[in-house]
Hints:
Blueprint: H1 3-10, H2 12-18, E1 26-30, E2 33-36, H3 39-47, H4 61-64, H5 74-87, H6 90-107, E3 113-114, H7 115-132, H8 137-151, H9 154-163, H10 172-184, H11 199-209, H12 212-227, H13 238-248, E4 258-259, E5 265-268, H14 270-273, H15 311-328, E6 329-334, E7 341-343, E8 346-348, E9 354-359
Parallel strand pairs: 2-5
Antiparallel strand pairs: 1-2, 3-9, 4-5, 6-9, 7-8
Amino acid sequence: MNRTELKLTLRLIPFLDSVEDVEDGLVRVRDRRWLAWHPDVVTALFRTDRALRHPPSRTLSPLLGTRSVLWLDGREHAAYRRTLAPLLRPARHRAVVEEIVERAVGDLPETPVSLSSWTRGLTLRIIGRVVFGVDDDVLLTAFSRWLDRRLGSRVRTLAHRCLTPGATRSDPRLDALLLHRARTAEPPALAAFLPADDLRDQVVSLLFAGHETTASATAWTLHWTSRTPGLAERPDLLDAVIAESLRLSPPATLAGNRMSAAGMVITPSIYLAHRRAATYENPHVFDPGRPPPPPGAFLPFGGGVRLCPGRDLALLEIRLIVATLLRHRRVEVTSPIGPPRSRGAAMVPPPSLTVVATCRR
Ligand code: HEM
């Protein structure tokens, strides 16, 4: 691993900040691997996506498994996406999301609570119900602990990556519980419609991809809302606030790897595309009134054939969580902001960021 790769792995966000002014919007990470964020390159990649390969992330593949949808390609990938699309339609899950959100907001104490932990617990409960059809707090807590032990610290992530490259880091006991839950859901929930032979990898991928990013997006939206006077009283601006929060604080800083037939790997950087001064005026300023972005400049959910299949469900969740919280509570996000943290390629608010949600009386 060279110095650039080491910085990218250990100090992802400071590294991305350090290359922000590179005008080409393209940086070489190692011999045949590049980071790209110029809108023309991003547009060209997404347009030709079907012909590209999508090599696994070295950090995530030992967790999600080699058969995860995130790195399937060709016909297998297209078939899996066709199965998934109707199962993730937001209309199918609206009532469940509403019920879980109302309960979580009702249970929120009026004392300070860690914002990212609260949103993570809530979005995991939602995706758990979507995938399994039932609440199983014991299973979800075990899943969350397993994930935390592997992604909770950059140093640990790097140690795993370098000391045991490619080794799978699944936990057989947890896998058995997840599989049992997925197979026995009654009435059948999403997991019952997934291909049986790689069920473990797909269930873990959905639980992971379906909550970490949504939790982070919700926390950032609440953070920006509470820092912008008057926004809490303007529900008509909520979609614009969410979009601007996804621009300035994108939960996924990088999209998936793209590999050409010649073996060149290009990873689109969402974070850098959203902060490009040539595209966005005053890119570091939170401004929900911005004009629509040009093609290739706004990609919080990636694009091409890998465009996030959970996008609409995630937007529904963020909208409902933020709107329900603001309707019932006066929200104050406290503590100095401090630098954001990375978990895998996700960007999350620092754990010190707390929310105080006083009841509206
Ligand atoms: C705000 C919330 C979310 C964000 C920002 C987000 C972002 C992303 C991004 C950037 C990718 C990679 C796309 C690419 O490489 O071009 C992705 C893929 C994926 N996401 Fe999401 N996501 C979110 C929520 C969800 C939810 C709720 C689910 C599931 C219920 C989900 C499931 C997936 C899956 C399965 C993939 C892999 C798709 C493929 O490789 O074909 N995501 N997401």
